[in-house]
Amino acid sequence: MPGGVKADVRTYQMYVNGEWVDSKSNKTFPVYDPATEEVIAQVPDANADDVNRAVAAAKAAFEDGPWGSATAQERGRVLFRLSEKIRQNTATLAELESRNTGKPIVEAEFDIADVATCFEYYGGLATKILGFVNPVPDNAVSLTLKEPIGVAGQIIPWNYPLLMAAWKLAPALAAGCTCILKPAEQTPITVLEMANWLADVGLPPGVVNIITGFGETCGAPLVQHPDVNKIAFTGSAAVGKIIVKQAADTVKRVTLELGGKSPNIFFADADFEAAIDGALFGVFINQGEVCSAGSRILVQKPIYKQFVDAMTEKAKKVKLGAPLDRDTKMGPLVSKDQYDRVRSYQEVGKKEAKLAFGGGRAEQFAKGYYVQPTIFYDVTNSARIAREEIFGPVATVIPFEDEKEAVKIANDSPYGLAAAVWTRDIFKAFRAVKAIRAGIVWVNHMQPTYVEAPWGGYKQSGFGRELGPWGIEEYLETKQVYINLNEAPIAWY
Ligand code: NAP
Ligand code: MG
């Protein structure tokens, strides 16, 4: 039985200052399996008192604990050991992630492999944080030093629970920060399981604290806390805007990874078969609960009708099923709230556009938050289903005439997270790549994501970058040091 789980009921405690604790109020809240709608765990309902305790622990660990003097090599080795623990426990973690989120087990296994790779990557990067010698015109040495920002508050969503935790914790620890992480209320389990290994891999108490609670009562006090130096947030644009305002009073560093309404653009010369797969994969993977989902499918007119028909035929074959079934390609949505939200957009879509496929609940399941993969076509880019992030398996297909119009439609969105362009013409592809205002642009693919390459958005998709060396930079301050080499007085007075 892991340290944070009491007896045989899955009642978790949370991990603060190297100890498993209940919330100060002793309140808990339930966690569900979205395929069965049953409660699978109880977790502590943390509020401002618990946030204060966790922040005090993280501050002490940063200022007074051994972590502050750990060498970069030592920090790196901690991350390597954590990566190994994750790899050794992939099957258990993937199963828990799949049960809690509803995502297909095969996708959950990919996620956990990515988690391990993320810790490993930043383990290596810990020893590559470099300073700089500045060429000042004086008899002096001017240095640029990189230092950890300090205490980082990290708030994550429910679509990739452990992976989002890794994207936050790994670079912060490589940089030498200490952390308080709040998982999404729907999906706190895998990150609590991971906390079982934090002491074993060599993290001193207080370096990583995991607190479970709700956004308004646990997330907000973390954002407002004066001893938290930085907030890293992944979630909706609506909450991101609140966070920026709440962080202003203490002038915190903030990075935001928000939502999107990403265009997936198909020119008539694209490889047709690959294009159809790319359109479906781009929007239906992870039940469409993906920030970079290719939810606006822009198709050039000569292939438009054929494209909608072929997408529809293939969508009929997408296998919905139990998350733990290895043949399942789409599981239930994560929660009742998310189900209601997606269902309501399916209804909005029926009024705004033509329905090619789906449009309702997946009625073959007696229980669970299952919706049909849904394809709307003849959508105008001003429709709500083309402008608002649905965060579910709802595709909106929009026709376009030429390259110029495709780029115009693509950029006509408050968001700018990701985009993809499908064509056999490298010149056309690169013209589009340069013209599209988005943080990630794929050519002839959609969704591959690597820890070595930057991730983040333009416009209302947020600011700051995660992954790669960019990710670690967001947890570092820059200090300028000037060392005078003139032995004589400065001769001013
Ligand atoms: P959300 O409602 O914005 O919540 C995200 C996190 O913020 C949760 O932990 C939430 O707590 C917390 N929160 C809510 N209100 C808060 C407040 N006032 N102060 C502080 N924290 C608060 O998003 P979600 O529904 O979990 O996730 C879906 C969204 O995440 C989508 O918009 C998606 O595009 C985005 N996303 C973006 C990326 C990316 O890399 N750009 C990746 C994944 C997801 P609760 O759990 O209690 O609500
Ligand atoms: Mg929420």
How do the helices and strands line up, and which of them pair or pack?
Blueprint: E1 5-6, E2 11-12, E3 14-16, E4 19-21, E5 28-33, E6 38-44, H1 48-63, H2 72-88, H3 90-101, H4 105-125, E7 132-134, E8 140-148, E9 151-155, H5 161-175, E10 178-182, H6 189-195, E11 208-210, H7 215-224, E12 230-234, H8 237-248, E13 253-257, E14 263-266, H9 272-284, E15 296-300, H10 301-315, H11 336-352, E16 354-357, E17 374-377, H12 384-387, E18 394-400, H13 403-411, E19 415-416, E20 418-422, H14 426-435, E21 440-443, E22 458-459, E23 462-463, H15 468-473, E24 476-484
Parallel strand pairs: 9-10, 9-12, 10-11, 12-13, 14-15, 14-20, 15-18, 17-18, 20-21
Antiparallel strand pairs: 1-2, 3-4, 5-6, 7-8, 8-24, 13-23, 16-17, 19-22
Helix pairs in contact: 1-7, 2-4, 2-5, 3-4, 4-5, 9-10
This protein binds NADP nicotinamide-adenine-dinucleotide phosphate (NAP) and magnesium ion.
Give an account of the 3D structure.
Helices cover 37% and strands 22% of the residues. The mean pLDDT is 97. α2 packs antiparallel against α5 (161-175), α3 (90-101) crosses α4 and α9 (272-284) packs across α10. It has helices at 48-63, 72-88, 90-101, 105-125, 161-175, 189-195, 215-224, 237-248, 272-284, 301-315, 336-352, 384-387, 403-411, 426-435, 468-473; strands at 5-6, 11-12, 14-16, 19-21, 28-33, 38-44, 132-134, 140-148, 151-155, 178-182, 208-210, 230-234, 253-257, 263-266, 296-300, 354-357, 374-377, 394-400, 415-416, 418-422, 440-443, 458-459, 462-463, 476-484. The longest helix has 21 residues, at 105-125. It has two domains: 5-258 and 461-479, Aldehyde Dehydrogenase, Chain A, domain 1, CATH 3.40.605; 263-443, Aldehyde Dehydrogenase, Chain A, domain 2, CATH 3.40.309.10. The chain has 493 residues and is α/β, with parallel strands linked by helices. Bound molecules: NADP nicotinamide-adenine-dinucleotide phosphate and magnesium ion. Residues 155-159, 182, 184-185, 214-216, 219-220, 223, 234-236, 239, 242-243, 257-260, 291, 389, 391, 417 line the site of NADP nicotinamide-adenine-dinucleotide phosphate. NADP nicotinamide-adenine-dinucleotide phosphate binds next to α7 and α8.
